Amino acid sequence: MTIAAIPSGWTENPLGKVADVVRDSVLPHNIVPGTSYVGLEHIDGEGRFVGVQPVANGELASNKFSFSDQHILYGKLRPYLKKIARPSFSGVCSTDILPLRPLDEVDRGYLFHYLRQQHLIDLATTRSTGANLPRLSPKQLEVFPVAYPPLPEQRRIAAILDKADAIRRKREEGIRLTEELLRSTFLEMFGDPATNPKGWSVNSMNRIAKITGGFAFKSEWFADEGDRVIRISDIGDGKVDLSNAVSVDCDSYRISTAYQCVTDDILMALSGATTGKLGMVTDAESGSFVNQRIAIIRANNRVASPWLSQLLSNKRVLSLLLESAGGSAQANLSTKSLESLDIPVPPDNVLFEYAEVVKSANRAQSRRRIGSKDADNLFNSLVQRAFRGEL
Question: For a 10 Å CB count at each end of the chain, is N or C smaller?
Fold first, then answer.
C-alpha cells in the first residue's frame, strides 16, 4: 500500500517492518505502586502528556501494556483524535494504546512525526472498525506505509520538527500564562467573590446588567449566507469563535434585533454539560444573533464587563449558580437564576483599573495569538516539506 511517490534515495516499508507493535501485558497485581499510568485521557491531540500520575496499590483493575522511553504510544481508539505521543518515562498504558518500538533503521522522533501526518490519521480513521467505538487493529496499523531516508537524515528532520514544535509550545504557553495572570490579578484586586473579603456592597445581577436569552432558531433556517448566529458550540475559554458559525436571513424571519449581541456583551451557555461556558463579544462578533440556551449579559456600566466576565468564570460562583439550578453538572440555568445571583460589586474606580489591565493584556494576547498562528503554520509547512524530501 503506497500513498504517494517517495523521494529519491528513500525507502518504503510497511510499519510492521520498521517497528514492533509491543503488547506486553501486565496483570493488575503485577503493577508496582508508583508506576506511571497513561490512559487515552492523558494524551492530547498535539501529542502531549496531560495529568499523568503514579498509580496507587490496587488502583488499576485490568490488564495494561508496559512501555518505556524507547516507545511511541499510539491511541487506537478513535484514531482521528490523533493521540500519538513519545514518552520520556516508563510505565503502563491502557490497552487502547499500542506501544510501538522502532527498529534500528528508523529513528523514534522521525517515526513519531511521520505517523502524525494528517493523511495517515485519515487512513487510520477509514481503516477503523466499530460504529460507536471505532478502533484500529494492530494488523491494520502494521501495513501502514512508512517512507524514510537514511538514518542521519531522519534524525536531522526530527530535530528540525522538534525545534519548530518547541516554538509552537512556547507561544501557546505564553498565552496560557497571560490568562493565568489575569485570573491572579482578579483575585488580588477583588478577592474571592464567594466570600467578599473586601466587604463591598452586594447586589443582584439584574441591578448591574441586563440579561436576555437567545432566540430559538430553527435548524432548517440555517443557510450559507445571511446574519451570523452564535450557538453554544461557538463559545468557550472566554472567547467567541465564528469559524463554524451558521447564518440565517433574520430579516426574512423577522427576528428582533434584541437577540443581537454587541461588543463587551458576555455570552453564557445555559444547557447541559456546557453550562457556564463563557465568551466575551469583540468588535469582530458584534451584531451577530444569539441562539437559544445562551444568555446575553450586558453590563449597565460597560467598564464592568471584563470584571463581570472573570467573576462569572470563577468556579465557586458557577457552583452557586448550579446549586440554584438543582446542583447537577448537567443542570440547565435560566436567565432568572442569573438575574437573582447576588454578587459583591466593587466601586467604579476599581472596575476601571481592572478594565485597563485587561485591555493591556488583550493587546499582548492578540500579538501572541498571531505569533502562535504563525508558528503553527510554519510547523505544518515544515511537516509537509519534510516528508516530501524538501528540507
Answer: N
Q: DSSP letter string over 92-113?
A: EE-TTEEEEEE-TTS-HHHHHH
269, burial (CB in 10 Å: exposed 0-12, middle 13-18, buried 19+): buried
| Topology at the third CATH level for domain 150-200+346-391 | Helix Hairpins (1.10.287)
Give me the CATH code for the 201-343 domain, please.
3.90.220.20
* pLDDT recorded at residue 68: 98
Q: Helix or strand or coil: residue 2?
A: coil
Extents of the domains making up the chain: 11-148, 150-200+346-391, 201-343
User: What distance in Å separates the CA atoms of residue 128 and residue 140, rounded to the nearest whole number?
Assistant: 8
Q: What pLDDT digit, counting tens, does each position of 315-372 carry?
A: 888 888 888 765 555 568 899 999 999 999 999 999 999 999 999 998 998 899 999 9
**pLDDT tens-digit series, residues 56-105:** 988 999 999 999 999 999 999 999 999 999 999 999 999 999 999 999 99
For the record, the C-alpha cell of 155 comes out as 534524525
Which residues make Cβ contacts (< 8 Å) with residue 367, sequence separation at least 6? none
Cell of 288: 451577530
Q: Which amino acid is at 95?
A: T
